[in-house]
């Protein structure tokens, strides 16, 4: 399925209005399928900038996203990744590829296979990178969140990738050997660590990632593992754009022109998919994953 947001199928804001949690900005969006080397079909979505004629435009760069832990509510629609796909094609000329890793379900559908603790998922990461490369999506960066950071560190050092951005890395499955491999890879590694993270906080993260000379560890004051609340989301998206496309951040917080408001959906099991997370009160609410696991 291909969907395009334009004045014919969306409301038009005559004056600049705030970009809120459920705001969907114009883009060319299509359902995609990835095919792994071990024979699985994975479901996903590709959002690209919208060309003047209504078709897809060539993006300035591409984000290949890797979602949080599926056994604790993570999937391709986990809120930061979903909002990246809703905003960044229009605001930053970026393509955003999201997909469900093996055995993961979302409204888009269920990817074949079964969760494999990050081992078999190496084929999923490779399939996503290959898809972006085959479809001439330029300047590919990995953006992993929590479990997705483990996948990026363990399986993401591919010559077709220009760098990686890690959100809330727990460093549970990824080992020092994986960090050493990324150090040898030599590509940029940007690490966003919430001040109040449940698993790895900024000082410890700086010590762990010291093995990677090119790693930039950024502590984010007041943030939590799940990046709940619109201020946290904006900080993440600004950092992503600032590193992938220097000079394009900070992003606008208002928009005039065609836009949609997404339908309200129930909160995801990880507690992040709340349509009310524009509100300041949500920035401090509790959203803690299960002990000894990463969401």
TrEMBL record:
GO molecular function terms noted in the UniProt entry: hydrolase activity
UniProt xrefs under Gene3D superfamilies: alpha/beta hydrolase
Comp. bias (Acidic residues): 271-281
Keywords on record: Hydrolase
InterPro entries according to UniProt: AB_hydrolase_fold
Region Disordered, residue ranges: 249-295
Domain of life assignment: Bacteria
Name assigned to this protein: Hydrolase of the alpha/beta superfamily-like protein
């Amino acid at each position: 399925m291909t969907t395009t947001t334009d004045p014919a199928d969306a409301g038009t804001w005559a004056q600049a209005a705030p970009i809120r949690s459920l705001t969907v900005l114009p883009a060319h969006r299509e359902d995609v399928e990835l095919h792994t080397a071990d024979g699985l079909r994975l479901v996903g979505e590709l959002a690209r900038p919208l060309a003047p004629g209504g078709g897809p435009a060539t993006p300035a760069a591409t984000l290949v996203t890797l979602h949080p832990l599926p056994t604790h509510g993570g999937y391709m629609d986990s809120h930061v990744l979903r909002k990246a796909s809703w905003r960044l094609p229009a605001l930053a000329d970026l393509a955003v590829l999201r997909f469900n890793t093996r055995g993961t379900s979302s409204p888009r559908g269920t990817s074949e296979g079964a969760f494999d603790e990050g081992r078999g998922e190496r084929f999923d990461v490779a399939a996503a990178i290959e898809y972006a490369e085959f479809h001439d999506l330029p300047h590919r960066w990995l953006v992993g969140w929590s479990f997705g950071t483990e996948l990026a560190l363990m399986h993401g050092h591919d010559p077709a990738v220009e760098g990686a951005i890690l959100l809330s890395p727990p460093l549970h499955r990824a080992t020092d050997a994986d960090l050493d491999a990324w150090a040898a890879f030599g590509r940029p590694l940007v690490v966003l660590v919430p001040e109040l993270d449940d698993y790895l906080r900024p000082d410890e993260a700086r010590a762990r990632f010291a093995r990677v000379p090119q790693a930039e560890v950024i502590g984010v004051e007041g943030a939590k593992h799940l990046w709940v609340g619109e201020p946290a989301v904006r900080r993440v998206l600004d950092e992503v754009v600032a590193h992938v496309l220097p000079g394009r951040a900070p992003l606008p917080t208002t928009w005039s022109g065609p836009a949609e408001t997404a339908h309200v959906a129930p909160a995801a099991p990880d507690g992040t998919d709340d349509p009310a997370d524009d509100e300041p009160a949500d920035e401090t609410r509790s959203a803690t994953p299960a002990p000894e696991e990463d969401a």
